[in-house]
Amino acid sequence: QVQVVESGGGLVQAGGSLRLSCAASGSIFGFGTMGWYRQAPGKQRELVASITSGGATNYSDSVKGRFTISSDNAKNTMYLQMNSLKPEDTAVYYCNCNPWPPVTYWGQGTQVTVSS
After folding, report:
1. Which partner for 31 in 49, 90, 99, 116 could form a disulfide, CB atoms 3.0-4.6 Å apart?
2. Alpha helices in the chain (DSSP H)
3. Is residue 29 within 8 Å of 73, Cβ to Cβ?
Protein backbone atom coordinates (compact mmCIF):
# COMPACT_ATOMS: atom_id res chain seq x y z
CA GLN A 1 0.00 0.00 0.00
CA VAL A 2 1.45 3.33 -1.05
CA GLN A 3 1.61 5.98 1.65
CA VAL A 4 1.71 9.71 0.97
CA VAL A 5 3.02 12.07 3.63
CA GLU A 6 3.02 15.87 3.64
CA SER A 7 5.44 18.04 5.57
CA GLY A 8 6.54 21.64 5.77
CA GLY A 9 3.47 23.31 7.23
CA GLY A 10 3.65 25.76 10.08
CA LEU A 11 2.97 29.27 11.30
CA VAL A 12 4.19 32.21 9.23
CA GLN A 13 3.49 35.91 9.10
CA ALA A 14 1.66 37.44 6.18
CA GLY A 15 4.06 38.04 3.31
CA GLY A 16 6.22 35.11 4.31
CA SER A 17 6.98 31.86 2.54
CA LEU A 18 6.68 28.14 3.16
CA ARG A 19 7.54 25.09 1.11
CA LEU A 20 5.38 22.01 1.45
CA SER A 21 6.64 18.58 0.50
CA CYS A 22 4.72 15.45 -0.39
CA ALA A 23 6.65 12.18 -0.30
CA ALA A 24 5.33 8.84 -1.51
CA SER A 25 6.49 5.44 -0.37
CA GLY A 26 6.20 4.00 -3.87
CA SER A 27 7.18 5.08 -7.37
CA ILE A 28 3.97 6.80 -8.31
CA PHE A 29 5.32 10.14 -9.45
CA GLY A 30 5.75 10.60 -13.16
CA PHE A 31 2.34 9.07 -13.82
CA GLY A 32 -1.05 10.69 -14.04
CA THR A 33 -1.79 13.90 -12.21
CA MET A 34 -0.73 15.11 -8.77
CA GLY A 35 -2.09 18.03 -6.87
CA TRP A 36 -2.32 20.07 -3.72
CA TYR A 37 -5.67 20.77 -2.12
CA ARG A 38 -6.55 22.83 0.93
CA GLN A 39 -9.44 23.00 3.33
CA ALA A 40 -10.13 25.92 5.63
CA PRO A 41 -12.45 25.61 8.63
CA GLY A 42 -16.07 25.57 7.52
CA LYS A 43 -15.17 25.46 3.85
CA GLN A 44 -15.01 22.79 1.21
CA ARG A 45 -11.74 21.27 0.12
CA GLU A 46 -10.46 23.09 -2.95
CA LEU A 47 -7.79 22.42 -5.56
CA VAL A 48 -4.83 24.76 -5.19
CA ALA A 49 -2.46 23.48 -7.87
CA SER A 50 -1.87 20.42 -10.01
CA ILE A 51 0.88 18.99 -12.18
CA THR A 52 0.70 16.31 -14.85
CA SER A 53 3.26 13.64 -15.69
CA GLY A 54 4.27 15.83 -18.60
CA GLY A 55 4.95 18.77 -16.30
CA ALA A 56 1.92 20.88 -17.20
CA THR A 57 0.74 22.92 -14.23
CA ASN A 58 -2.53 24.50 -13.22
CA TYR A 59 -3.31 26.91 -10.40
CA SER A 60 -6.39 28.31 -8.77
CA ASP A 61 -6.86 32.02 -9.38
CA SER A 62 -6.37 32.75 -5.70
CA VAL A 63 -2.76 31.49 -5.69
CA LYS A 64 -1.64 32.13 -9.25
CA GLY A 65 1.60 34.06 -9.30
CA ARG A 66 2.35 33.28 -5.64
CA PHE A 67 2.51 29.47 -5.46
CA THR A 68 4.59 27.09 -7.54
CA ILE A 69 4.04 23.35 -7.82
CA SER A 70 6.87 21.06 -8.86
CA SER A 71 7.87 17.43 -8.62
CA ASP A 72 11.06 15.39 -8.44
CA ASN A 73 10.01 12.06 -9.85
CA ALA A 74 13.33 10.41 -9.02
CA LYS A 75 12.74 11.23 -5.35
CA ASN A 76 8.99 10.46 -5.48
CA THR A 77 8.38 13.90 -4.03
CA MET A 78 6.19 16.84 -4.94
CA TYR A 79 6.53 20.38 -3.66
CA LEU A 80 4.43 23.49 -3.23
CA GLN A 81 6.42 26.68 -2.87
CA MET A 82 4.18 29.30 -1.30
CA ASN A 83 5.27 32.93 -1.39
CA SER A 84 3.56 36.16 -0.38
CA LEU A 85 1.32 34.25 1.96
CA LYS A 86 -1.94 35.81 3.08
CA PRO A 87 -4.14 35.09 6.11
CA GLU A 88 -6.74 33.64 3.74
CA ASP A 89 -4.22 30.94 2.77
CA THR A 90 -4.65 29.46 6.24
CA ALA A 91 -5.88 25.90 5.84
CA VAL A 92 -4.94 22.25 6.06
CA TYR A 93 -3.07 21.39 2.88
CA TYR A 94 -3.41 17.92 1.38
CA CYS A 95 -1.38 16.09 -1.21
CA ASN A 96 -3.35 14.08 -3.76
CA CYS A 97 -1.81 11.59 -6.16
CA ASN A 98 -3.64 10.01 -9.10
CA PRO A 99 -1.02 7.90 -10.85
CA TRP A 100 -3.51 5.68 -12.72
CA PRO A 101 -7.18 6.55 -12.22
CA PRO A 102 -9.31 5.48 -10.45
CA VAL A 103 -6.49 4.79 -8.00
CA THR A 104 -5.98 7.85 -5.82
CA TYR A 105 -3.90 8.53 -2.73
CA TRP A 106 -4.34 11.25 -0.11
CA GLY A 107 -1.97 12.41 2.57
CA GLN A 108 -3.03 13.17 6.12
CA GLY A 109 -2.65 16.92 5.65
CA THR A 110 -0.37 19.60 7.03
CA GLN A 111 -1.54 22.77 8.74
CA VAL A 112 -0.56 26.14 7.32
CA THR A 113 -1.39 29.17 9.44
CA VAL A 114 -0.72 32.70 8.22
CA SER A 115 -0.94 35.46 10.81
CA SER A 116 -1.78 39.02 9.91
Report:
1. 99
2. none
3. yes
